[in-house]
Amino acid sequence: MSSQSLQALWEASAGQPFEPAVSKDQQFSIAFFLLLAAFLLSSLFGLNLSLKNIPLYAVPASFAFGFGAVYMICAVGVYV
Question: Quaternary structure per UniProt (predicted)?
Fold first, then answer.
């Protein structure tokens, strides 16, 4: 990529600011919901320990906790 095309790309993108899929105002509520869902799903998995419950409770709980933790970190102002 030449520097001239990079300069043209830079100037073309100046009129299109970045807008995230989830706005800053919604991050806390989404994070809270995901962490609550992770807590509930992991509690259900803890009450019903079985291999058949892993895809039903454990996997969604781990995804909800992972994404919820990142959203909560961003919502309270700690950027990773």
Answer: Component of the oligosaccharyltransferase (OST) complex.
